[in-house]
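[09:14] KT: can someone run the structure on this one? pasting the chain below
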Amino acid sequence: MAVSVLTLNNFEDEVLKSKTPVIIDFYADWCGPCQMMKPIFHALSDKFDGKLKFMRLDTEKDEFLAMKFGIQGIPSLVIVKGNKEVGRIVGYRSEDQLKAQINEVLKKI
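[09:31] RB: done, structure tokens below
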């Protein structure tokens, strides 16, 4: 599954109306750890295909959504189901660490 770009314009359709939980990668192009996480995030999007929708949001372009979610550090991954945050992972993680943390959140929802 591909990773899609999230913006304020498509937030309602892609997140709020999604029947599948959504994981949002809040990042910035200048952030080194964010760039290191990008290929991991893309790789995991294939492994969670059908279970989780993967979206990326550039905090420099959509500050409003970053503020709405209270993002204070990046990379930050927020898992949303409906209009409710169900999980948050802050900081760089290896692929195995990130996969395990996502699985833990998915078990609870």
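[09:33] KT: thanks! Strands lie at 4-5, 22-27, 53-58, 76-81, 84-90.
[09:34] RB: yep, looked fine to me
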